[in-house]
């Protein structure tokens, strides 16, 4: 590989690591300061609002198919439906996502093989 590609990979990996680790370190320090002051509010209010908003944004982006077509919209609809049904039945987070992705992939595979 070219050295430019390696540099880009290292920068991307470092950026990804920092995006994930810096908020964790900040929150740990924040919690230690709050604990030392004996306050009841451990988590800042903005974090309780920002977290669900970020999840909703990711959901909105992930529901729009990359290629607009009947098969991709059908796969998305069936994947969402199976995710909701499995989520309601199991009450967990892992199994519904696994089932939804499996159904989505199966529909796309069947549509491309036909």
Account of the protein in words:
This protein is mainly alpha-helical and 114 residues long. It folds into 2 domains: 1-54; 63-114, no CATH class. Helices cover 82% and strands 0% of the residues. The protein is built from 4 helices and no strands. It has helices spanning 3-36, 45-62, 70-90, 94-113. Helix 3 (70-90) runs antiparallel to helix 4. The two termini are 37 Å apart.
Q: What is this structure, in a nutshell?
A:
The protein has 4 helices and no strands. With 114 residues, the chain is mostly helical.
Query: What coarse outline follows from CA principal-axis ratios?
Result: flat
What portion of the residues fall into strands of 2 or more residues?
A: under 5%
Order of helices and strands: HHHH
Poorly predicted ranges (pLDDT <50, ≥5 residues)?
none
Task: Report the average pLDDT across residues.
Answer: 82
- Biggest sheet details: none
Radius of gyration: 20 Å
Distinct helical segment count: 4
